[in-house]
Structure formats: structure tokens, C-alpha cells
Design brief:
Shape: flat
Radius of gyration: 13 Å
Structural class: mainly beta
Number of domains: 1
Distance between the termini: 24 Å
Largest sheet: 2 strands, antiparallel
Strand content: 25-35%
Helix content: under 10%
Number of strands: 2
Strand order of the largest sheet: 1-2
Number of helices: 0
Order of helices and strands: EE
Length: 39
């Protein structure tokens, strides 16, 4: 679960992971896809 309720997508953790924005895509509906990767 990224947002809301249900089965977790990732295990619970307090660790921080450094990520950098690798790309974006905007769809006609207004939805924006953000793609991140580890540096």
C-alpha cells in the first residue's frame, strides 16, 4: 500500500534510502509518473 489501506507493498522500515529523480511522464489525464532510482 502506497496510500490508504490494505496489504503493504513494502516491509515497514525506519531506514532512509537515498533516491534521485530519474524521469517523469505526464499523461493527458493529468496523472504524473515519477521514476526514481538509487544514485
Amino acid at each position: 500500500v502506497v496510500l490508504g489501506r490494505g496489504r503493504p507493498l513494502f516491509p515497514q522500515s525506519d531506514a532512509r534510502v537515498g533516491l534521485r529523480l530519474a524521469g517523469t511522464r505526464t499523461f493527458g489525464s493529468g496523472v504524473v509518473l515519477l521514476r526514481y532510482e538509487r544514485p
